[in-house]
# Entry
Amino acid sequence: MIYINRDGHVPDNVWLAKAKQLTDDLFNAANKDDRNKIIDDNESFWGEIKDFLLNISHGKCWYSESKDGFNHPHVDHFRPKKIALGIDKKDKGGYWWLTFDWTNYRFSGGVGNVKKRDKFPVKANKADYPNIDTDDEIIFFLDPCEEEDVLKLTFNSDGEIIPIDANGWDYEKAKYTIENLNLNFKLLKEKRKDVWAKCNILILETQDLMMKNKLTPSSKRSGQISEKIRQLRDFVKPTSEYSATAKTCLLSSGLIWAMRIAA
# Structure
């Protein structure tokens, strides 16, 4: 999972105007069935800004950081539209008023979105109506749009994404998110493991060259060091897949120079 900073990103005015009109229609609907019909009749609408959401994350799934290893991309309603299943798998009521609110959208690979579906357990302060602030909800899912949430996850050399804490509420949230977004999907793990291995080899090779260069300085060796550092920097670019995995690998090395690249 990567932090998605949406500051400065807004869909075009035509889309926003239509979204407002559809939201007004939902509020004016006579009953739940009429609201659901409006949602069903316009289910292609949020797909119209898929490219806009994609560009915010440089083409990467907001949950998995994959461009193609997490299947066909979807627009996920973070808070589900019609049904929101609690931890007991019972419907606690969806967030129909957020159906056409783009800030409720998350760009997701199909594997994660299919696994998530209508799940959205809330531990406390469930918002049942539009006039209740969702910011007060204590939710189980980590949100890529919350920088603090992303920090609750880390990676290991096997390509697994794991909770950074061993217990407590942050552990519970991280564990639930990993399981219910399928973030250890086999192909994802393989790709992250490959990135870790390549980064680790570069780190070891660079450190070896640096140690040799301290003993016997060489312009050629300095050039080799610079090239390997460039390759490592490429791994942690925002545009690169699994950059969070590469950063974790660099940080786990314990080498100051490598940790600075990850910063």
